[in-house]
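User: Sequence in, structure out. Go.
Assistant: Echoing your sequence, followed by the structure tokens.
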Amino acid sequence: MKKNLKIVFALISLCLFSKLFANGNTLTNVPEDYLGTYIPAQMEMLLKEYMSYEKALSTIAASSYDILLLDKDICYSQVEFYDGYAVEAEDFNKWAFVSRGNDKFIIDENGISYRRLCKETGAAGYTAYGEDVLKILCHDVLDNKDISINGNKIKIAGVEYRIELSTFYGSKDCVMNLRNDTGICFMMLDGVSANIVNAVPGEYKMMWEPGTEILQTIPLFYWKDSSYPNINGWKYRNSKKDLRLLRNLFYAKHGYIFKSADLKEIFEKFDWYKPNSKFSENSLSNWEKNCLQDITKYEEQ
């Protein structure tokens, strides 16, 4: 009898708790035109600044929601935990909704702005989020014939990876966490390139850290036709390997035909590279020549 009473009491308590949760997070008067998945407007800027998804997310989480998945009567707000973290109705009632052309924005109770990625929520919303992050972090290598993005997946030289949006892995200083058929791996920054490395068990349960096995390497920065790096501002300008790549990037953009096999392999994979048998140093602008002089100076130090 006592056992049955305990069960009944537990069920009543659970129902009351669920009702309280529902009442606190159930939304009314949600504008239908604004349903969908949103991320903080500053996310793109932070991704470009840090070249790290985890660093960008950690910075955002200190002052705003990770993500907003706005449905008709509820709005979830935690990366890959949309079944358990929801915005309070009291806070939602302080929000503002703004349209700019076809774009939709939410301004939350603290004045933080979010831009809409897509009209869907749930799995479709997270796929759109993953695709957005991939395209920002890998923006300058999308002209590489070996690299393509499809939804929240990136294919590199025939190997497909899915971006992991949760940050439960020991991925300090990595560009992003990935998953392929064999499990978790990491994209780690290595100067103007990035290495995809294996994962090894971390100090704590369910935590992973970057290993030492390099699975693949890709060029990552400043490869698009219209882009050049700030040579004097780069933190890795003392790397002879990086400086050599950067120096030859200037020549590649003017069609220089490389004799070195490694440079030939790198640049010929980009759609913008057009071999020019009539290449001449005279095709370089004065600004480009000055940059090359700076690079040569750093290489000689």
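User: And one key feature?
Assistant: The first helix runs from residue 2 to 25.
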